[in-house]
């Protein structure tokens, strides 16, 4: 599938691997794909993010992704659902971090073994890549671009989708900016 990626999309995948490695993550996750997309300049995805006003909020997005990672990748919706069952996720995170250090719930601890120098793609990242492929095929695009990766993250439930939506970057808004579909060009 990688041979069907544009150079921009390949750069996002390489960037995601880099983010996973620099963060000590055991796998490349969907959040790493979003971080790599935030790094891009001069591509279709970076244009769409800028058009939707995300340029001014990139550091907020990075911080929110880091907070979700500390919660073991739970979205706010997951945390709220657990709170409804009487489970206080922030309290659990605090207690675990007191005992084992900051980030202990992320699963990124170096002492867990694994293969040095190799980061497999996690389930959510693989599904985002597959969704990007399906989106490109559905649009009859010959190659998978970084815009397809961004659209896939914006439509698949999870932390990246939630964080993007909090900043007005939804699938609907992205398709308006990228393809002129829908009415107007406002946040959606």
From TrEMBL:
InterPro entries: Clp_N_dom_sf (IPR036628), Clp_R_N (IPR004176)
GO BP: any one term: proteolysis
SUPFAM superfamilies attached to this UniProt entry: Double Clp-N motif
Pfam families, alphabetized: Clp_N
GO-annotated molecular function: peptidase activity
Entry keywords, A to Z: Hydrolase, Protease, Repeat
Stretches assigned to the Clp R domain: 2-185
Protein name (Swiss-Prot/TrEMBL): Clp protease N-terminal domain-containing protein
Organismal lineage: Bacteria, Bacillati, Actinomycetota, Actinomycetes, Kitasatosporales
